[in-house]
Design goal:
By secondary structure, the protein is α/β, with parallel strands linked by helices. Strands 1-11-8-7-5-6 form a 6-stranded parallel beta sheet. Strand 9 and strand 10 form a beta hairpin. The protein has 2 domains: 146 residues, Rossmann fold; 84 residues, Leucine Dehydrogenase, chain A, domain 1 (Rossmann fold). It has 11 helices and 11 strands.
Length: 322
């Protein structure tokens, strides 16, 4: 039997109490759902001040091409998030047969629209459209997903940028829970351009959280099990449900599970459940802190998109990054 502690620890961490995983006696949940709610409240308060001052509010747009069910859900969630914090939102729905040229023309329109502070092009796109070409077409000042090369380059140099939402959300979660990272060995399992690679850079920077010694693991890593088991902080971002097992995690480690995969489950009305990259039931008893799936990294990713949109709005108003 093991104990899971949750919201009370979130409150303690948010109040500024430093949390050291080396001192933990029981596994504690890094509650992204609760933390993201706090972020949305903070953003909502700022938007309320803008309205009271007679100013326009931030405006986020999304382009959705085709009728992919998961993409529809993701975009609907983003619209609800905007409604909750008081942002304006626009969804441009395009048919799956939309040509690449037509999509690029819509991107150009949003780039030029001064009422739009930031926008995203929901992926995946239909196979006949080059996702990289679309990413490169988005104005850096409105690239609130943080996928474009200029924002990635600025992030690498530690300069003001829109940091990709999932890595930014993870850093925010570590910061708000006051997880000690300095001098720790962090293993990032997965080297994607939107999670593993940028997160490894953020964690290695001279910052707080940060100052980790970072190893990136991938499909060609030798003795992956031993490398993961050496980590003080283990981040799983490989997209393989249950891949991280108990023997890959050291006692007292902090585990961040980025994986979110739909797994068939006949016992649920939807016919599926969301599964992480970590075998939670087996791994959690060994951890000091761990994120659940769902309710961990996912909500923080959505909150980060709102943060980036507010930042884009403030930049458009001539304000410098804080």
């Amino acid at each position: 039997m093991f104990i899971i502690a949750g919201l009370s620890q979130a409150g303690d961490a948010a109040s500024g109490v430093s949390v050291s995983f080396m001192e933990s006696k029981a596994v504690q949940i890094l509650d992204g759902k609760s933390c993201s709610k706090q972020i949305r409240r903070e953003i909502s308060d700022q938007v309320a001040h803008l309205r009271a001052a007679g100013k326009r509010v931030p405006h986020l747009a999304a382009i959705l091409v085709g009728d992919d069910g998961a993409s529809e859900t993701y975009v609907a969630n983003k619209v609800r998030d905007c409604d909750e914090v008081g942002f304006d939102s626009t969804v441009l729905r395009l048919d799956a047969t939309t040509s690449e040229a037509e999509l690029l023309a819509r991107v150009a329109e949003l780039n030029a629209d001064e009422s739009i502070d930031g926008f995203i092009v929901q992926v995946p796109l239909p196979g006949h459209i080059d996702e990289q070409k679309v990413t490169l077409a988005i104005d850096t000042a409105k690239d609130v997903d943080g996928f474009g090369p200029e924002n990635v380059g600025l992030m690498c140099l530690g300069l003001p940028s829109f940091v990709t939402a999932t890595p930014n959300g993870i850093m925010e979660l570590l910061a708000r829970y006051r997880i000690e990272t300095e001098g720790r060995h962090c293993v990032v399992a997965g080297r994607s351009n939107i999670v593993g690679t940028p997160l490894s850079i953020l964690l290695s920077r001279n910052s707080r959280p940060g100052n980790c010694t970072v190893s990136i693991a991938h499909s060609r890593t030798r003795d992956l099990k031993a490398l993961c088991a050496s980590a003080d902080i283990l981040i799983a971002a490989i997209g393989r449900p249950g891949f991280i097992t108990s023997d890959m995690v050291r006692e007292g480690a902090v585990v961040i599970d980025v994986g979110t995969t739909r797994v068939a489950d006949a016992g649920r009305p939807s016919g599926f459940r969301l599964a992480g990259d970590v075998d939670f039931d087996a791994v959690a008893p060994k951890c000091s802190w761990i994120t659940p799936v769902p309710g961990g990294v996912g909500p923080m990713t959505r909150a980060s998109l709102l943060q980036n949109t507010l930042k884009a709005y403030r930049r458009a108003q001539g304000e410098n990054d804080v």
